[in-house]
Design brief:
Bound molecules: adenosine-5'-diphosphate
CATH architecture of the largest domain: 3-Layer(aba) Sandwich
Shape: elongated
Distance between the termini: 5 Å
Strand order of the largest sheet: 1-6-5-2-4-3
CATH superfamily of the largest domain: Leucine Aminopeptidase, subunit E, domain 1
Number of strands: 6
Strand content: 5-15%
Length: 334
């Protein structure tokens, strides 16, 4: 998955480069900076001394010494005052410059802490949003796997409003696995209403198509595999393969595998990631999932959160992943 949010200690990440939220002296400090210097050993400090410091919003690279990471990219985040002193632009610059430097050094995997969100006081939810926006923008243009490493869960929260909203939606929609009668009635009702509605809609659009032709197409679609449906939808939406898998946060190799094997069975999060990237309706999402042998269930928080976003027409996979993360669910993507 090109962008992953993980909970970990960044000094333990086995990646090509970890990013350090340093201060302008680059001579070590508290927080993540202190942890990185302790784990890397004295060699890191010695190299940092040769760099002559670093300006806010800029980035410099060193070796990783005793760390499992090959390099450390030191960037200096802004100190948050009130959000009106160019903090956001500087924070964006930290991510952009670090990613560019990583790319220039041939790094394929990079891990970031939430820069400025500790002692420097940047509100964590906004700091995370900046991280996600800049990294996902960068990944549209470059092949790389990037991790955002969240250290302490207690300190991490999506916005209070979104969290409460989703929590309420889960409460309203959660169907206890044992109340079979209700699930059964939803199951019995929903597909029929949905398919009649969509048949009428499609029928109106295709007045010139004979009933035989239309049925023929529908029968072919029943036999369609997941991979075939995916490729058909990509064509129908008029987007390129790359636009689709990048928006789905799926890496190119996995996409090629799915493309070349019509019987490929993806995992459920992967199938959903494609549905999100193609901005499918709930009904189409269900259809695509069925082809991979899955269904959305009302007795599963993960599924209800997905439904929450699709039913609101919010197809931003990174926001969805933030919400899944906040509710301790597995994330979308490969
Ligand atoms: P800043 O001065 O840029 O705010 P801090 O080190 O104080 O930097 O905090 C930045 C973020 O790094 C905070 O969200 C903090 O929780 C997190 N953090 C601290 N130690 C680690 C660690 N070992 N691994 C990953 N993240 C960490």
């Amino acid at each position: 998955m090109p962008l992953e949010i993980v909970r970990n200690d960044i000094t333990k990440m086995k990646v090509d480069a970890i990013v350090n939220a340093a201060n302008r002296s680059l001579l070590g400090g508290g927080g993540v900076d202190g942890a990185i210097h302790r784990a890397a050993g004295a060699g890191l400090l010695a190299e940092c001394r040769t760099l002559g410091g670093c300006k806010t919003g800029e980035a410099k690279i060193t070796g990783g010494y005793n760390l499992p990471a090959k390099h450390v990219i030191h960037t200096v985040g802004p100190i948050y005052e009130d959000g009106k002193h160019g903090e956001k632009a500087l924070l964006e610059s930290c991510y952009r410059k670090s990613l560019t430097l990583a790319k220039e050094q041939g790094c394929e995997t990079v891990a970031f802490p939430l820069i400025s969100s500790g002692v420097y006081g940047y509100p964590k939810d906004q700091a995370l949003k900046v991280a996600i926006d800049v990294i996902s923008g960068f990944l549209l243009e470059h092949e790389m796997t990037v991790y955002i490493v969240i250290f302490d869960k207690a300190a991490y929260r999506i916005s209070e409003k979104l969290f409460t909203d989703i929590a309420e939606y889960i409460d309203d929609n959660y169907v206890n696995e044992h109340t079979d009668y209700r699930r059964e009635s939803i199951r019995m009702r929903a597909p029929r209403q949905a398919s009649i509605g969509s048949f009428e809609a499609d029928f109106c659009e295709c007045k010139e198509m004979s009933v035989e032709d239309d049925l023929d197409i529908r029968i072919k679609q029943i036999d369609e595999s997941f991979s075939q449906m995916l490729l058909r939808k990509i064509d129908e939406k008029g987007i390129t393969d790359a636009q689709c898998y990048k928006k789905a946060n799926i890496d190119r190799k996995l996409f090629s595998k799915i493309r070349s094997d019509i019987h490929y069975k993806p995992s459920k999060p992967t199938a959903i990631a494609f549905a999100i990237s193609l901005e499918l309706s709930l009904e189409e999402t269900e259809d695509m999932l069925r082809k991979a042998g899955f269904a959305l269930s009302r007795s599963n928080k993960f599924d209800i959160i997905i439904e929450y976003f699709i039913s609101r027409g919010n197809y931003n996979i990174f926001e969805i992943n933030e919400a899944l993360f906040a509710f301790d669910q597995s994330l979308l993507g490969a």
